Queue: 2 jobs
Job 1
Amino acid sequence: MLGISPKRKETDKYIMAKELKHMTKRAENYSQWYNDLVVKAELAEQSAVRGCMVIKPYGYAIWEKMQAQLDKMFKETGVQNAYFPLLIPKSFLSREAEHVKGFAKECAVVTHYRLKASEDGNAVEVDPNAKLEEELIIRPTSETIIWNTYKNWIHSWRDLPLMCNQWCNVMRWEMRTRPFLRTSEFLWQEGHTAHATREEAEKEAQTMLHVYADFAEKWLAVPVVQGVKSETERFAGALDTYTIEAMMQDGKALQSGTSHFLGQNFAKSFDVTYLNKDNKPEYVWATSWGVSTRLIGALIMTHSDDNGLVLPPKIAPIQVAIIPIFKGEEQLKEITAKLQPVIDQLRALGITVKYDDADNKRPGFKFADYELKGVPVRLAMGGRDLENNTIEVMRRDTLEKDSVSFDGIVDYVKNLLDDIQNNIFQKAKDFRDAHIYECENYEEFKEKVKDGGFFLCHWDGTEETEAKIKEDTQATIRCVPFMFEQTPGTDMVSGKPAKYRVIIARSY
Amino acid sequence: MLGISPKRKETDKYIMAKELKHMTKRAENYSQWYNDLVVKAELAEQSAVRGCMVIKPYGYAIWEKMQAQLDKMFKETGVQNAYFPLLIPKSFLSREAEHVKGFAKECAVVTHYRLKASEDGNAVEVDPNAKLEEELIIRPTSETIIWNTYKNWIHSWRDLPLMCNQWCNVMRWEMRTRPFLRTSEFLWQEGHTAHATREEAEKEAQTMLHVYADFAEKWLAVPVVQGVKSETERFAGALDTYTIEAMMQDGKALQSGTSHFLGQNFAKSFDVTYLNKDNKPEYVWATSWGVSTRLIGALIMTHSDDNGLVLPPKIAPIQVAIIPIFKGEEQLKEITAKLQPVIDQLRALGITVKYDDADNKRPGFKFADYELKGVPVRLAMGGRDLENNTIEVMRRDTLEKDSVSFDGIVDYVKNLLDDIQNNIFQKAKDFRDAHIYECENYEEFKEKVKDGGFFLCHWDGTEETEAKIKEDTQATIRCVPFMFEQTPGTDMVSGKPAKYRVIIARSY
């Protein structure tokens, strides 16, 4: 159960600059590179509890930036935040048949509510007299407890739409876990909306998909393919699952957010009706939608390189690091005096600036550290810059270094941040687009899919074909994409007429 | 286990204005008034899970305002946010002897990680083959898992201080619960800091106490007594527990936030040492500190009245409600055109304005609703106001209504909000101060304490005396207060020389 890591050596923490970035290269082992980077950049680490991670301050700061922006976007659509219980009565899960099938196998179950001292007094054990009448499940998702609550909130058409979101932790007992991508406990938001009509609920599910896509592309600089899932890949209890699929640098897909049209399934399971304008009772229509700390994984794997994280300026906890290069306190004072107005002006523009004048680390170490942490812009100023009225500017995305005039540096940095945001999005998009292949031949597909990429293929719509592709290649149908035309064609596996044109890929 | 509330009738939701405020009066039954108000003002409700509440959107909006301000104040002291696992290995709890005694009796215990279909297929049951090797506890507080993590983060004096906070849910299996004041699950923040010296840790515990007091008084307008707890009332595992104690309108105390000096207890239990400047290992010194959704209870019980909530402007989700009183669309347009610049100007000042021009509710209903919800300032404008260039202003704290000139209304409202913030703090402080009694006679104390109030008494410092007072009167020693002088005196119960001068009160 417990895997407590051995104590790190004192020296580990004060390693040299070159060691700081010593990690597996992407080309050697992409998967190991990711794991190394998560630890090296101090984003997260494994905890003493199987499959649960500790999100370290720097990783959490990225999550806070994501939360702040998403929360704003949700509220702009009329969604309100609320909080529902962590624990769900076991019987609630059974009420929606598909839902329980999807989640029962990976539930953390609370059976007792008290511990007592063991006989020798040195430990505690479960008190058998404190057994719950009905077991409680740590929420894997909250549709059941929320719809049981909505029953009392919804009476007439005037109570609709009802749109709540909660930011919380959820638990799914995953067997194989990886930091951010798949963990037993993770942080997420889950929106749950109730509507009077089918059309309105379907529209809401799509609206939230677009919010997610917008956020991913404009804030995380992660280009996504929007689409709808096949039946097999749907959320347990949904009639339709919409998804945003991002492509990682190894060509694999990462499902980065989903929005579900739940029909009247949960309303029927929890008996939630409303009186329509004709005073007749009708079942309520539902959606749910969520994104999680998995987005941090998407962010890392889309942009970062062998030198460390590359963060889009809009989501970077530190946007500009400024490092004075000085000998002695006198020179530091002089450089600081010159830089202070720039720091103030950048901050007044809402830009997060870290002025790092610590004298217990060498500039080279600081440079490497900010590179590793993905800080978009690094400025450095030394004695020669003072003389020449210049400043050194390094942009993290391209690692280009320039000596530029000190005059106008504020505007320069402001524009550079915009430029970096656009550039890393464009780079990721170019990569993604270059790895989308139209494919009509299964033999060719099987060979090519090993190297990653999104495959735009015709599918006959049967589960058999879907299962065969997965068995042969580990690839799955990611979605019926909205960005590509639904042309007629022939299923490459069965040879039957196609029902859909889909994106197939290996995925995380 | 389950207590699903019966479905409310359709009419409930569209009750008349007078019914809206129909609830128990404080003078009749203070406790019932509180319960009624929590429900009527749509702050929270009981969930289907014993002792766990649903925090409704309006209640959650108050919590979000509190979070935003506290988070800012924490970060200004150098604290960073992070996230640690929900589940704690059972064995961790036993490591600190006092800690386990304090929390073992009210723990939710996870014993299994899977459900399976029951034989008839209609339900799910715990899968006996999915029993955990070691049970996991839902965190009642996170000292143990965090210090087990800190062990790997702290090596030398250069790693200190380490100051993390997390916003999360915790679970304590309380037998008798009340919304916000005492629930099995609640939301809180818990700060955990590590320091090189005893002095630094003690100072940090006090600094955070002052942050809490400052927040309570300046933002919640809740006056508090700062002090230190007696040994009996200390946090399980602490050497000193600092507290802020607020007085409710029934004279009872509400412990509203605590900050603990933990000494080296957790460092010793989890073997957390650092190398000091002489390269010698030493145990780390610790603090922890937390406030919870209980603060919402403090807020309600300090200021609200028989008409509903009274919220301090700085924490109110809606600060100003503006209601046009119109007949027909034409007049509405005219009023809106007149009000729009005011709305814009107020919002530009950072003031949250709700312009309520809904035509499906009468103005009287809206007035009552905003009163119930504690919106600090209500403006109303009708046809006569248009003619006279006036506007009606109602302040929630005093319920005073005024017709004022429309010119300069923005400044008027801005000043009024400040005035309300100050006024409700002063009112609460006057009430509190009028109910602090010096008392040296136990018979008098026993009689008087029934009516509530804080009693400033001399105490001999023994557990026996403390226990006797509690048994005789249900009152407890709240703290050794910092705001009163530690005069010499005689214990009113034992007649022995006093060790401390303390505040004694009944409490929530």
Job 2
Amino acid sequence: MAGCARRPVQLRAAGCGRDRVRALPPSDQLDGAGHAVAAGEKRPHRAGRPLRHGRPSADRVRRRAHVPPRGAQSRRRAHCGPRIANRGLTTFDLLLIGYGNVAKRFVSLLEEQRATLARRHGLRARVIGIATRRSGGQYVAPVFRRTGPARGPAVAGAGVRTTLDFVSDACVRDAAAARKRRLVMIETTTLDIARGEPAISHVRAALSGGAHVITANKGPVAFAYRALARAARRANRRFLFEGAVMDGVPVFNLVRETLPGVRIIAFRGVVNSTTNYILTAMERGRPFAEALADMQAQGVAEADASLDLDGWDSAAKTAALANVLLGAAITPLDVERMGITPETGRLALDARAAGRRLKLVASAVRVGRRIVARVAPEELPGDDLLAGLDGQQNAIILRTDLLEEIAVAQRSGSLTQTAYALLSDLMTIARDVLNRDAPAPPRGTARATRRSPPPARRRRSL
Amino acid sequence: MAGCARRPVQLRAAGCGRDRVRALPPSDQLDGAGHAVAAGEKRPHRAGRPLRHGRPSADRVRRRAHVPPRGAQSRRRAHCGPRIANRGLTTFDLLLIGYGNVAKRFVSLLEEQRATLARRHGLRARVIGIATRRSGGQYVAPVFRRTGPARGPAVAGAGVRTTLDFVSDACVRDAAAARKRRLVMIETTTLDIARGEPAISHVRAALSGGAHVITANKGPVAFAYRALARAARRANRRFLFEGAVMDGVPVFNLVRETLPGVRIIAFRGVVNSTTNYILTAMERGRPFAEALADMQAQGVAEADASLDLDGWDSAAKTAALANVLLGAAITPLDVERMGITPETGRLALDARAAGRRLKLVASAVRVGRRIVARVAPEELPGDDLLAGLDGQQNAIILRTDLLEEIAVAQRSGSLTQTAYALLSDLMTIARDVLNRDAPAPPRGTARATRRSPPPARRRRSL
């Protein structure tokens, strides 16, 4: 087992003709000595003691299944097997598809939060593979590298030519984790605004391979939410995408987790930081180009700035929100769309002079059985909540049946926030898996109950 | 069993010397023919078939415990027993302590949402007892009324003199539901701002009797959060209180459910509708008394308006937020407090003239190991998110470690919103109980998994 603790210090490129060698930063090296633990997980329902006659009595099995032994620690041991009990952690395997700034920050955030994740969520994560457009797919975890060609490079196996192949290959190689619902694909590739690909195909491949999917990519939700949600339900896996809109500030999770039974009727919001920053700057007399250059320098604007300026980014977010919150089945192409130009600056100045504010407003509303979705500059009264959003601030106002209007606002955006969105989705999956794997609640007397609260409950309490 | 379907049409007063008889409105009559189902729940782990030799084989027990039969329907039957499978619902018993406007709206909301709760959450609720200050405790569900004196009034049993006795008595009478974690106390009594009683005692009694607790009362969280949360953990029951601040707009649930791993460093907000309405009205030149009369006429102001005006209501909410979100252990008496008076109107007018706004701001921040909490009128710059809150709007801005600032705002308040807070907490408890009672996830092949998604997962998906 000593080999398992070996840390990878370099990765080689696969299938792209070049022989690039690069050091893996220490923060990415998440695959330390944990394989012994993972192996221990393969027998989660063995109490860890040898069976006396090769087969347990009915009473003993029944006792293990329903009535926990006294004391949380011993119950935990009965459930997870002795090796886990020592560590008390459940390992999730991560497959990073796309490895740009967001994914890199996610990996470093995982490392920063490692102690908290372990202590408060009983969760440990290791990156098993990374795929980038330039370098192809590469296995990072030694256990998978060693299953490749005996002396070949540490890359995906034969027949793996595309990122899509890599996703499928990884699901097969890590089938043990996939079966236990502990394999998660983190999708952060660049969005093709016209089709939502290749992200949609990646999501499909991962779900059908038994992996959960987390994405910060608007494409899958904006173009194919209904089909992918159905695929996830059928595969009994989660498909989460909190990072697609307003970074780590909860919108989708807010509605799903905290507003059960509430029907969203409509929404409107400011969801693109670049255009809001430019509009605010122009109100103060700064030129369009200068404000745009600011956003590009800060890395906030999309690589192709026209995606922001022409309203494509807002339209994709609008479609995503409408699909998930209003039950629509639209794409960004169905969103009526008008962006901002240097000429919009004059309108912004005029509005400000009249005590009003010009904002690029994204909205959708249900009209009969149709969804009307729209992105356009709108002049808002000064006391509108959206009017107060300066610079990179974003906000969404939800109109609901039971709670009238609720607003959630983000006062600033950053890479860390998007990375946190991925992390919070990972914690949602972990909570889900751990809660469902936990033993049934005690059915004894109140006295016995008080003595032995199950550990998972403790974690969730505020 | 025919008697179980009988609906109560009247309640008699208990122990208060008067013989008031009042009709129970149809919307409160939630205890229809469901007792057969409840009885069926008593054997959740029986597969519903008689055992051939009085004792199952080890293999059969093991199979039932871990490997679900093919198809969701048959798994559900194996888990819940045949009577539940037919209905597919889990019944929660509710004990209403306090029966004012909020509790009444909660009961009618339950009725309005009955179909949704059943279809989407597999949940059914029935009120088993109601306690009010004027009438004492009264059992509503026939099954409990009949366990009282044979021909006596339909009230709590002998020795039940106070509401507190009634809570304990109900937990004993409905011990079957309490053991199965399906008894919930809904606490909506009036707050004694100096001590947080009697709500705190009610919460303790319910938890120690095995009931979950939901409250819209600020008292327990503001005065004794840490002790009550500990009691809930020990009893393995939930203690939820979303309605205590900003009605049904999620604040506590937002942080607990959607911001795992995020540390709240400070918060500030406008959390009292009455004072914000009065300040907004005075800015527009209306007199203090007239604006206050508006709020009293609408039923928004507290019964004793000085609780709003002197900042007590805001201070209680500040203490509640600080205790839960910042890990403080303070009471409303520890909150530095300044309210509003008719003279504040001049300051509000001056601020408005200078492009600024005067708001009653509640805030708390951690300074070293101390929590500094404060309620006071503050002059805010016009572009502050709180400055934009007009009339009865409320908002809270959370300062966090990972996500910088997040704001959540309520654009209007109503009885329905507070009632919804209770309902959303009930759904949280139901989800928790149902998820933990659900069978373990399938551990077979991906193929088998796809064929049989467990029903609980379907409900939670967006």
